[in-house]
Fold:
Amino acid sequence: MKDMLTSVAATSAASPRGTERESMVWPHKHLLGLEDLSAEDISFILDTAQAFEDVSTRSVKKVPALRGRVVVNLFFEDSTRTRTSFTLAAQRLSADIIDFTAKTSSVTKGESLRDTVRNIEAMGVDLIICRHPNAGAPHLVARCVNCCVINAGDGRHEHPTQGLLDLYTMRQAKGRIAGLKVAIVGDVANSRVARSNLHGLLKLGAEVTLIGPATLVPKSFAGLGARIRHDFDNVIGEFDVINMLRVQQERIASSVFPSIQEYSRLFGLNAERMCRAKSDVLIMHPGPVNRGIELSAEVADGAKSAILRQVTNGLAVRMAVMFLCKQASEGTA
Amino acid sequence: MPQLLDADGIASALRRMADEIAQSAPPGCSVGLVGIRSRGDDLARRLQPLLAQLGFRDLEYGCLDITLYRDDLAEIGPSAVVRTTEIDFDVAGRYLILVDDVIHTGRSIRAALSAIVDLGRPRAIRLAVLVDREGSGRELPIQPDFAGIRVPESAGRVTVRLMETDGRDEVEVGT
Structure:
């Protein structure tokens, strides 16, 4: 946008340039899950993230968009990469950021979540980045405060910024989402990454297949619009993208699969299984990778792996999300 | 709305601006054209071949989105649209021509200057605009070095339409 006087022309209808968005009003001051967003909302975030991508590559890796704003990382569950990514993204927007870790807080003295977040907000905070082991906790936080809330992972429910950065990475590599055949492989039942991916991919028109042992890929997911398979080898050749989920260590000892070796043999990606995949398949993983279990080292580090690109793209996506949510909380909306 | 410039008027204004830019450039320097989105980028792209005809060889083009540098982000709120900045050359040491369609308050240009400085240190930055709305509406001490046409702000709102964005070339003035 330009000086006010040209805004009439800037909002004029059908642009011959066509592909470019002349105007859009972003209405959401919270990002709690991709299930709540429309396809247009999701595409708008991805387009906005593209504009933030170059901030990380230029001489001064900072823009003043959130200068004077305060962002809080409110993490009730361990995280290194998501927290670091949000911290760096906030810093690149020139915001001030503080870390709040449940283990060193009054939560251990019995303070309720509602009291904790209302006290934090009273210090003049503009955005809360919330991770919590219980599904729905960020939604509760959003109802208690006036500032923006971004879900950084809630229980087994959603991890919307991971879903968005996965979509961004797929779109970057394949040029589109609609019509892509995407496999999500592993512990779907317990994965918030899988749920956010599933909602986002289906809304944007991808065909999603969930793959894993029956104990980890329940039939109920078919109701959301995904196909379910338990025989990875028979279908692996169909996919443009294979998103491998992390085997969660805490579940290895439980009874959901007989042994790690068996899981790895049936559902792990190694060089041999890769021979049956499409030659231009994109391999993704939300990290951290259990090398030798869901991914062999040569696949994780191979030419088809997008794992490090996902991490890089996460920064741009989180900058876009923080910027858009903050903007929605301002002005006339 | 009275028409201030038609397609020919815009073309000849750009030719004259290109001449002036060429005369102002220090001998032997590399020139970079940076257009402010939207419409400034289209104008910068049109200036590029005109300057090339005048003998500039090392001539780069880029476009700049200033949204993240605006000082009124809190006022525009949810309608902020961030687009990509595409400046694929090193601005350091270059004679940079910043191009916009209209200057009025000067605040867009202030934002653009801040954005450019974050990309590197140009040898100099000059400002070229198609329309200079002159008057007390200027809110910052920023003036164009090259202007296609000057209009007193009392003439009213200025609307620039360009083929690339709006399907036709014209500048209109009046309420």
Notes: Chain A touches chain B at residues 1-6, 8-10, 12, 14-17, 20-27, 48, 50-54, 58-60, 62-65, 320, 323, 327-333 (CB under 8 Å). The two ends of chain A are 19 Å apart (CA to CA). The longest strand of chain A covers residues 148-154. Chain A has two domains: 25-158+313-327, 160-310.
